[in-house]
Amino acid sequence: MAAADRVFRPRDFEGDGQDVASSKDFSYSGGHHLAAGPASGERHGRYMFDGYILCGTPRTGSTLLCKLLASTKTAGDPHSFYRRQDVPEWAEEWNLPDRDTMSELDFNVAYLNAAIAAGKGGTSIFGLRLMRENLDELSAILDRIFPKLPSDRARFERAFGNVLYIHLSREDKLAQAVSLIKAEQTGLWHIAPDGTEIERVAPPKEPQYDFERIKREVTELETYDAAWNIWFEDQGIIPLRIGYERLSANPAMTLVSICEALGVQPPNAGDVRPGVAKLSDATSLDWMRRYQLDAAV
Predict the structure, then answer these.
(1) Residue 190: strand pairing partners
(2) Is 148 left (phi over 0), alpha (psi -120 to 50) or beta?
(3) What is the C-alpha separation between 48 and 50, in angstroms, rounded?
(4) Cα–Cα dist 173/181, whole Å
(5) In the predicted model, is pLDDT for residue 193 greater than 50?
(6) Residue 294: left if φ>0, alpha if ψ -120 to 50, beta else—which one?
(7) How many CB atoms lie within 10 A of CB 53?
(8) Residue 243 reports pLDDT greater than 90
(9) pTM of the predicted model, to two decimals?
């Protein structure tokens, strides 16, 4: 059975599972049951994996990839379910009770089950987008649900089943830092290919070049990317590596390669229509030029 199709009574991990709510329409019904995946290495039907985790840092094309994966209708519907700022919004969307009305364990269990259901999006594969800054917090939450497991990987596989780890990275950290800072300053994070705004979090504002801020961001992004690689090594994980440069240059073939790795039916590459466009512009190039000149002084 896949992760979202089994539940366990708390602290009774050897007991028989029970069916949970449909993965297409999850709502909380009280009590706590623990979603749990099968032991690592098991396979289910024709699928090689129960799910995947997009392991990234900001501005590595994760939103583009999430939309591409969801568009297949076979490879889940990944989102940042464990981004701390978004948890209240997801909990409300899933009709979970206010967390003040239940124990921390009850809330974490209900939230996990709902996240797995939502991340499957009516398919047999669970998807999750996870930034490095949220990794330790998610592991701590799972440790409270599934205590005494020996590693992060063991906790993730207990919760989500057999997982494909996909590492999203961007070789040009300066371009990544500029993209992130511009988004933070302007409030505009994503646009569609036709120029329509997809995600704006603040009123429009002119971006301002800031050498020191870009320098700090480059260092932080390098640190987070290195931290992912250290974590993979510590956990004995060999991730599927996807570079932003490859993804942005050929999103269709990148999507096909991921579907093939997951063991799900890939789309026809000619039918793939990316739903997100690049925001890089003349200002981005100017900032990069100015930064390189200032850094050389």
Answers:
(1) 199
(2) left
(3) 7
(4) 12
(5) yes
(6) alpha
(7) 23
(8) yes
(9) 0.83
